[in-house]
TrEMBL record:
The keyword Heme is assigned to this record: no
Leader sequence residues: 1-26
Domain of life of the native organism: Bacteria
Residue ranges crossing the lipid bilayer per the database entry: 430-450, 499-517, 537-558, 570-595, 601-622, 634-658
Membrane topology: Multi-pass membrane protein
Record Gene3D superfamilies: TolB, C-terminal domain
Name of the molecule in the record: YIP1 family protein
Amino acid sequence: MKKIKKKIVVLLTLLCLLLPFEPALANTAYKTFTEDGYGQYVETQTAYTVRETIVKFDEELFLQAADMKIGKDGNIYIADTGNKRILVGKSDGTLVRTFGEGVLQKPTGIFLSHDDKVYVADEVATKVFVFSLEGELLQEFERPESILFGEKATFVPEKVAVDKRDNVYVISRGNSNGIIQINANNGEFIGYFAPNQTVVTPLTAFRKAIFTEEQLSKMIDSVPATAKNLNIDEKGLVYAVSQGERVEGIRKLNVAGKNILDAAVYDDFPVSVEIGSLENIFVAGENGFIYEYTSEGNLLFVFGGQDDGRQRVGLFSKISAIAVDQNNQIYALDPEKNQIQIFQPTEFANLVHQSLELYQNGDYDASKEPWQEVIRLNGLFDFAHLGLGEAYFKEENYNLSLDSFRQAKYKEGYSDAFWEVRNKWMRENVIYFIYILIAWFILAKILGWLNRKYEWKKQVRNRVNEKYEFKFIKNVLFIKNLIRHPIDSYYSIQHENKASYGSAIFWLGILFVLFVAEKYYSGFIFRYVREGEFSLGMDFVGFFFLFLLVIVSHYLICTINDGEGKFKHVFISFIYAFAPFFIFKPFLIILSNFLTFNEAYLLNLANFIIYVWVGILLFVMIKEINDYTIRDTIKIIFLTLFMILIAVLLLFIVYVLVLQMIQFVVSLVNEGVYRFENR
C-alpha cells in the first residue's frame, strides 16, 4: 500500500513539472483587481508582489515621512518629516547621506528637478528650500509679494514640483486659488494654475436664486478643494490629485491648465501620483490602495489595502507617497509603520506592459500576440480585448476588431469598426438593393392596375367579412385610427365599443414585449444593460406593477374629480394611446442594430418624437374620456403623479415594517433555540 502511495505522489509531481506554467493568482495578503468594460472591478492575476521592505538606512530610522522620490541614480530621497531632514539611501538599505538638519522644520514635500536639484516644501517654515544633490542649500522661496497673489491668500507649502522651464509649482495648504507658480530663476510669482472647480449643486443654485444677500452671507462659502499632491512628467504635463466631494480625483493638466485625462479615481483619499516609464499613471490612496492607469486613463490594476494590525506584507496602515524606479518597481511609503515596501511587477504585469508598450509605439502587429496571451490567461481582462481590437482596427481587419471591441464592451470602438464593416457590405450589395427597389416598384404598379380594373381587394375583403366575423381582430386593428383621428377614436371607444378588454390586454402584452426587446435586443452600442444579462422576472413584475399603479391611481383621481370615464374606458384608452409606440418602435429597435454613433441623433430624434406623440395622445385621452377642460386635465395629471408618489412611499413603509417584523421573529426564534440548547 505504501509503494502505491509513493508511486501516486511521484506521478503527480511529474505531471506538475510537465504541465505548462501559467501565472496564477499569487498567494498574497491582498487581491489584485482590474476594471471591466462596465466599470466594475473584477479580480485578476497578481500584478505586483513585495520584493523588499525598508525600515531604515543603515542605523538611520525615518519618522512620519511625508514624501519620497527616486533619483536618476536610483537613490531614494525621503522627506523625513518627524526628524526634520532629508534622508537619502539605496534600495538595499544603505545610507547615502542626510541633509537639511537645522534648516528644515517640517518637510512635507520633495521633488528632484531636471537640473539635479532637490526642492523641499516646508509648511512650518512656510518656505520652499532648494538643495543640491549633496545637500548644499542653494535657494529659498518665501511668500510672493505680488499683489496678484492676494492679500489673504496663504502660503503654507505642502508639495512642490518643477518643470523643465524652471517653473516651480507649489501646493499651499488652505489656498483654494489653485497651484502656485513661481519662477525658479528670480522667485517672481507667475500666477495660479488649474484651480479645482466649485461644483454648484441644484440646492445651492436654488438658494442663490431666492435668498437675500444677507442670508447668503451667513451661509458657508462654497470653496473648491485644494489639490493634495502633484507631479510632472518628461513632457511637462502636470498631474494633480485632490480629495473632496464632487471634485476630479486625478487630473492630467496641459500648459493651459486643462484636464486632458478621462479617468476617475475610485479612492476617496488619493494622496500621491507618480508616472512610470510607459507614461502609466500610479495613484496611491491614503487607505493603502495603489492604482495603475494607462496614459489615457484606463485602469489596469488596483491592489494593496489597509492592514488590520497583523502586519501583513503588502498592506499598509497608511500611505503618504509612492515612487516608481526605472525597473517599474513601486516604492510605497507608510508613515505610521515607518517603512517602505518595494513592489516588483509579476510576469503577468510585465506581459500587459509589453503589450501596451508595443501598441503605444505603433507596432500593432507585434502587440497582438502578447494581448492574446493576456486574454488566454484571463479572459475577463477587458483592457486586453480593447488593445487587441485597436490593433486589428489599425490593420483594417474590421471584423476581428468588431469582435474584440464587443468583448471589451468598448462601444465607441465598436461603432467605428461597425461603420467600416457596414460600408464594405453596402458597397458589395448596393446593386441588389437597387434590383429589389425596381422589382417592388414594378410589382406595386401591376397590383395597383389590377386592383383598379378588377377591384380584387374589395372583393376579397367583402367575402371574408361575409364568411367570418373577426371582431377581435377588428378591435385590435382599430388602434391605427388613433394615429389619424385620436379624438374620434376615443369617442368610439367610449360610446361605440370599438375596442375590448381582450384587444387592450393583447396590446398590453405587445407593449411588454417591445419593452423587453428594446432593453435586451437593441443594437449593442445603444443597449443600456449588460450583454448576456437577463432579468425577465423582475421586468415582468416591475412593468405590470407600474402599469396597474398608474391606471388605478389615475382612475381614482378622475373618479374623485367628476370624471365621466369608466374604468374599462380608461384602461383601454390608456393602452391604445401608445399606438405610435406599437407602430414605429419595432422598426427603431431593428434599425438600432444597423446604426453607429454617427447616426445616433436620428435614433434619438425618432424616439423623442414617439414619446412626445404618446404624451399628447395620453393628454387628449384624459381630456376626452372624462370631458375635462385643458386646465382640469393638467390638474388631474399632477394629482395622479402625486398619488403615485404617495402610494410608492406607503408601499415602501409597509415593506420596511414587514422586513423588521420578519427580522424580529427570526431573532426571537434564534434566541429561543439558543436558550433551549444552553439549559
